[in-house]
Amino acid sequence: MVAYTFLVSGEAKGHLVYQKYPWCNKWDKIRNETIRQALNVESMWRTQLRWYGHVLRMEDSRDTKRMYSWKPTQKRPPGRPRKRWEDQIKEITQRQEPDFQKVKALAIDRKGWRGLLKRLPNDRP
């Protein structure tokens, strides 16, 4: 899979990267992983995990936390259910800790959560 824009410091700045790095243009068909390694950009799933721990440690009155725990009441459309954010987190952490309840408890403890993030491999799970 090849994409022509990618994330650098939280914004899509693909066009700026092409100007800054002459070895990279949109016709070269370079994989995103290769470009992220060259630019030393943290992987997306690791950023998602850091955010997940942050959300779980938030106060219950915060809007972000309320939206995370909100459950829709309407009937879902037919077909396969869409993957939820928490399901992605389960997939990523499955390698290191199969019990997701332990993962949630670990995310509330900041030091333990950082330890889990460091133990996870750098490649995509």
**Average pLDDT:** 76
From the N-terminal CA to the C-terminal CA, the straight-line distance is: 17 Å
Strand content: under 5%
Class by SSE composition: mainly alpha
Give a count of the beta strands, DSSP E runs of length 2 or more. 2
Shape, per Cα inertia axes: globular
The total tally of domains equals: 2
Cα-based radius of gyration, to the nearest Å: 18 Å
Name the strands of the widest sheet in spatial order: 1-2
Write down the secondary-structure element order.
EEHHHHHHH
Uncertain segments:
1-13
The total of helices stands at 7
Largest sheet: 2 strands, antiparallel
Helix content: 40-55%
Characterise this structure.
By secondary structure, the chain is mostly helical. The protein folds into two domains: 7-39, no CATH class; 44-70 and 83-119, no CATH class. 51% of the residues lie in helices and 3% in strands. The protein is built from seven helices and two strands. The chain has helices spanning 14-20, 32-39, 44-57, 63-69, 85-93, 100-108, 110-119; strands at 7-8, 11-12. A two-stranded antiparallel ribbon has the order 1-2. A hairpin with a 2-residue loop joins strand 1 (7-8) and strand 2 (11-12). The longest helix is centred in the middle third of the chain and has 14 residues, at 44-57. The radius of gyration is 18 Å and the shape is globular. Residues 1-13 have low confidence and may be disordered.
